[in-house]
């Protein structure tokens, strides 16, 4: 429906501007994530060309913006790509485990942005809430095709003593499928360690679900009560079916009952997301708790476990629950998530954050956002703060990669990227922008910075894993897995980053499984 509405508006606009002698062409970020072209013609590269977009609001053309800033957002006509920010990493974690066990991840579980965002970047950080915007790029081996990186970064995470207190409601899956090693046992071990790491003024509640849901522990301050929390965790046992809907509903009710003003209130869902009883649809499940989510700002953090994992359901729950997902398969990963990342990132620095990239029609022939298919936002909704975006905390970076074909011999402004977010306390809107020129494009990916190359290698790898999905044309410059593995090994040596070393190992495994 969103795409049809955009096309109808665009058609009316095109007719009007043609009649007045002005040809307005463009491409919309509100489609399916495929490529876009200026003239709307069919392409030879496999990227379908959508209709021209609806115009942006008058705020984009130098008028005073809602946040009090002014200045031109992008020259007109422009080509827009708009999406909600996403810091999920579950797709990469699940693919890594599947390959480690000799399996092939299903293409439907591969989300390139989650591969890219699994790796550290070196963007400049802001001093306060909000984002810095970094835009750069490099040319590929395919004529006129470049890869452009839009990097957004929040302020560094504060020390544990400086963050707000946390009120965390853990919703644990204790269904039969959680008996597999590396599921409930891993969650219990991690929660036990986390209980000792959290502060005395933090609070924890515990809800379990199988056929039905039960509040095992109401919201409880940890100061003087750690033994009580440890006993509740130790007593968890595997039961029967997976009524995930009941678990989420009871978890939110428990979170609302124990709501703490001035604290970060969050539901943490730990599950293999293999729902088989009660409500099994993400939309239906979250409709029941929409009021708590909107009124109290309670966000959802999904932690996926298990070799057989309901990736799609968990991702949709997190997207609709204003949160994000990760995936753990080892004790080391679980300890990092529960004992380091969760306590450090319980705070929020931005609500409903969206990005919009405007490509210059004088220099850009076509473009494609790599991934974010499930996070697309209609271009005209970029400054509509009633439309959900992404919730982002301190210490995070968000990277979006674009495949961009420049016009032959083009020189000058290439693109402007703008991020818009609401202050987590006052909900006042703010924006920050960055831009890139054609002269800023590196001569090759190999000559770009190491962290840029890591992002590109991760995207190329995701692209290779979902190659069987014919909706997506191969990315420009993508090498075979042999060459990609060598590239990743070289980057691991240069960065001395264990995560990049693990990426090289994972690509090696994919190569051995005859992709």
Automatic annotation (TrEMBL):
UniProt organism field: Streptomyces chromofuscus
Record region (Disordered): 24-77
Keyword Signal attached: yes
Entry keyword set: Signal
UniProt xrefs under SUPFAM superfamilies: vWA-like
UniProt signal peptide: 1-24
Origin organism lineage: Bacteria, Bacillati, Actinomycetota, Actinomycetes, Kitasatosporales
Ranges where the VWFA domain occurs: 167-342
InterPro entries: CLCR, Uncharacterised_YfbK_N, VWF_A, vWFA_dom_sf, YfbK_C
Pfam family, one: VWA
Gene3D superfamilies recorded: von Willebrand factor, type A domain
Keyword Signal: yes
Protein name as annotated: von Willebrand factor type A domain-containing protein
Top-level taxon in the UniProt lineage: Bacteria
Annotated PANTHER family: CALCIUM-ACTIVATED CHLORIDE CHANNEL REGULATOR, ZINC FINGER (C3HC4-TYPE RING FINGER) FAMILY PROTEIN
Basic and acidic residues bias locations: 36-45
